[in-house]
Amino acid sequence: MSWLRARSSRALLLGVLVSVTLGMATAHDGARPVLDRVVVIGASASDGFRATIVERQGDRTAVEGIDLRDAISLAVEPDPSVLVSYATRSMFLAPHRIGESEISHAINERPTLVVALDFLFWYLYGTTGVEGVEIGSESDRLLSLEVGLEQLDRVLGQAGGPMLVVGDIPDVSGANSPMLAAIQIPASATIEQANARLREWAGARTGRVAIVPLHTLTAQALAGNPTTFGGVAWSPSMDGSLVQADRLHPTFAGLVALWARALESLRDAGADVGTGHQHDPRVHAESIRARLRRELSASGTHHPDVAAPAQTPPSN
Alpha-carbon distance 35 to 163, whole Å? Predict the structure, then answer.
């Protein structure tokens, strides 16, 4: 277990360094608007897995894939000067290696805000634990989570004071997806412990970290209940589901809703994120469809007919 003692020592040293640099970084916060340079990191939800807008004209079909970066760009006025995404749907293959790489890329962008809504997901889910060792117990999952938090501390330790908005861990044990086997799903008690640890971690970084309650939001979306986000009233039975039929990934509307919730969490954490942002997925969808219609009208190219993910509320 010498590697674990070494990791604990590194974590302690990193915590000390972060504590020192947090004060340095905060002094620069006022110089750059929070939404000036936005970097998205994370897994398949942020990468827009099968989140699409589809427009058909006769036998022609245009399909627009949407990721969280697109949802942010559609909503925020004015557009951020930098808005990039390093989120990847492949993160489940090697979460520790890929997560470290995403963090390094994010740091290089000198962000004012890092959006990590599903970054921690595969640090708790999956079968790959610390240093690539297969997860053999629920405590292994919690050790893996600590590695994810260490990576996020690398962002917070940067001079210049980026803020971080991170999602907590949802319970998707009812997912209907070949991407998630039963052996990859943590126990409910483990998810509760992980989220308590995340809140403790964020509480020690007041003013720098905002948490989006994915655990609660996912449960509400899967239940198909009406909800409100960003001032928008949404009825899944009338407007479409916020979650795809796999009960795991957000729809286009779900991505817009997640960003609206992220802004609420940032405001609650004391960040000035401005006002007047557009959070109605129906408005954004119509804007995209209008552009797709223009492209279809101007093009004689026949596209294969691609079906959009199911937008109806999933059954419980």
Answer: 10
Would you list the domain boundaries of the chain?
25-298
Determine which helix (DSSP H) or strand (DSSP E) holds 229, and give its type and residue range. strand 227-229
- Cross-strand bridge partners of residue 211: 166
Provide the H-helix boundaries in the chain. 2-26, 68-75, 95-108, 121-124, 138-156, 188-203, 214-223, 236-239, 252-268, 281-298
Contact 179, 132 (CB under 8 A): no
Residue type for position 42: G
* Radius of gyration of the chain measured on its C-alpha atoms: 20
**pLDDT tens, 133-160?**
999 999 999 999 999 999 999 999 876 6
Read off the pLDDT of each residue in 65-72 and give the average, rounded to a whole number: 95
pLDDT exceeds cutoff 60 at 303? no
Pairing of strands 209-212, 227-229: unpaired
| Contact assessment for residue 62 and residue 291, using Cβ atoms and an 8 Å cutoff | no
The H or E element containing residue 201 is helix 188-203
* pTM metric for this prediction: 0.83
Q: What is the DSSP string of 256-280?
A: HHHHHHHHHHHHHTT----S-----
Residue type, 187: A
234 DSSP β-pair partners: 227
Q: Which residue has the tokens 């006022």?
A: 30
CATH architecture, domain 25-298: 3-Layer(aba) Sandwich (3.40)
**8 A C-beta contact, residue 230 and residue 284:** no
Q: How far apart are CA 282 and CA 227, in angstroms?
A: 15
